[in-house]
Amino acid sequence: MSDYLFLLLGIVFAALGGELFVRGSAGVASVLRVAPSIIGVTVAAFATSSPELSVAINSGLAGKSQLSLGDALGSNIVNISLVLGITLLISGIPVSAEVLKRDIPVAILAPLLTGILLIDGMIDRLEGLFMFAIFAAWMATTVTQALKNRMPSNGGVPTTDRVIPWVQVVAGLLLLVAAGRLIVLSTTGIARDFGIDDFIIGATLVAFGTSVPELASTVLAKIKGHEEIGVGTVLGSNIFNSLFIVAVAAIIRPIRAPLTEVFPAILFGILSLLIALPRRGTGWVRRRQGVVLVLMYSVYVMTLFFFSR
What we know:
- The structure is a single chain.
- The chain is built from 13 helices and four strands.
- The chain is mainly alpha-helical.
- The chain has one domain (2-307): NCX, central ion-binding region (A middle domain of Talin 1, Up-down Bundle).
- It has a two-stranded antiparallel sheet with strand order 1-4. Strands 2-3 form a two-stranded antiparallel sheet.
- The longest helix is centred in the middle third of the chain and has 34 residues, at 159-192.
- The radius of gyration is 18 Å and the shape is globular.
């Protein structure tokens, strides 16, 4: 019974945290004079990926790196197929040319790299360091571009107006992280009662639980008219998961996983990103693409269980 209570409490925390976080992110972007999408793809993406980081560290120390790999890859699919898909069901979303050029190629190539490294059935510490180096290069490029493209100052901003957005962001993130943790604990407990494999638990239930922060913040960002924050958070979180989270898990303890079991998660992760690309010449991701993404997630879960037999 406690697992179900934790699950309910996690959902409540996610709703409250998402509301505070979206408000604060828009305010922080204004104070720093950067595009809101930059806040989404860096600060927001890192913070909403903190549940995955917690899973990676704890599972690595416990000798269960498969769980963290499944969580990272599964979270990527949840982020695009469910989080972005559900958001698109509300209405279409514009994607800037800068995001298309800088973030989407990295988000697509990152899971492909994971698959290549797993050809021998293992990602060792050296390969983990290599993935971390790629992540650091992407992050440095993103921050450099943000500093170059800062908007002109509108004069002095009152101290109160500068502090409040940061307080909202921190409070929102704490609630979102707590929500992710509660949902991971509850869903994992429920799954273990049914004797489900670690990678499958990681790639489905734990992945959904750790993606609750992205779901709450992205949907609320869309409702409040800040789509760029939501899209940035989803893409940035995918890059964090594929390069940073998997790298940390591998550095703590080499990840051993058969490529046949991991392949569906990698394949569907790449396919979901390709489906979510804006139609050529429009810069918009359409509602019908959201329908396809949500349906594809159902196919992914069924395929994953079939391959794990």
